């Protein structure tokens, strides 16, 4: 376990922490744009630098809870997101290894549940 952890940290250091942080910020902004484009969603997490990070929280429309959407996305698509403390909030976490296409696909699915 420690050997794998060491190799992972070495790999991340070689990629460069500023590069990783920049990529996460870019993907978070991309997800935030999707939130703004879907009627009924409201971005809750910070959307501007330097506060933006890989955790994108948004409020769902009335009548749809984060827990309900969490279960549907997992059961129907094997997509993992997280409900949070507010009943209508949902958290999406992006990381440097995610792609724009993955985020686009996620929000295409979310859109179908919000209309």
Task: Write a short abstract of this structure.
The protein is built from four helices and four strands. The protein has 115 residues and is an alpha+beta fold.
Could you describe the 3D structure shown?
The protein is an alpha+beta fold. Helices cover 54% and strands 12% of the residues. The protein has 4 helices and 4 strands. The protein has a 4-stranded antiparallel β-sheet, with helices on one face. The longest helix is centred in the N-terminal third of the chain and has 21 residues, at 17-37. It is globular, with a radius of gyration of 15 Å. The model has no long low-confidence stretch (mean pLDDT 94).
* Uncertain ranges: none
- Specify the overall morphology: globular
CA distance, first residue to last residue: 45 Å
Query: What amount of the residues lies in strands?
Result: 5-15%
Mean pLDDT: 94
Number of strands: 4
Q: Percent of residues in helical segments?
A: 40-55%
Could you describe the largest sheet, including whether it forms a barrel? 4 strands, antiparallel
**Radius of gyration in whole Å, from Cα?**
15 Å
What is the tally of helical segments?
Answer: 4
SSE string, helices as H and strands as E: HHEEHEEH
Assembly of the depicted chains: single chain
> How do the strands line up in the largest sheet?
1-2-4-3
Structural class: alpha+beta
């Amino acid at each position: 376990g420690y050997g794998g952890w060491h190799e992972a940290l070495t790999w991340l250091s070689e990629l460069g922490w500023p590069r990783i942080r920049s990529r996460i910020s870019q993907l978070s902004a991309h997800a935030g744009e999707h939130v703004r484009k879907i009627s009924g969603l409201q971005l809750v997490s910070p959307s501007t630098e330097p506060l933006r990070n890989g955790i994108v929280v948004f409020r769902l429309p009335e009548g749809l809870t984060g827990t309900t959407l969490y279960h549907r996305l997992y059961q129907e698509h094997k997509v993992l997101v997280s409900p949070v403390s507010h009943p209508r909030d949902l958290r999406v976490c992006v990381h440097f290894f995610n792609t724009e296409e993955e985020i686009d696909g996620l929000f295409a699915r979310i859109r179908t549940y919000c209309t």
